[in-house]
Amino acid sequence: MRELPSSVRIREVGPRDGFQNEPETISAADKVRLIDMLSATGLRRIEVTSFVRPDVIPQLSDAAGVLTGVQRREGVAFSVLIPNQRGLERALELRERFDEVSVFLSASETHNQRNVNRGVEESLAGLEATLAAAGAAGLRREGVIATSFGCPYEGEVAPGRVLEIAERLAAAGCEEVGFGDTTGMANPRQVHGFFAAARERLTGIELTAHFHNTRGQGLANVVAALEEGCESFESSFGELGGCPVPPGSTGNVSSEDVVSMLHEMGVETGIELASLIEASRTAQGVLGRPLGAHVLRAGPVDWRRD
Question: Of 12, 165, 223, 277, which one has the fewest beta carbons inside 10 Å?
Answer without folding.
Answer: 223
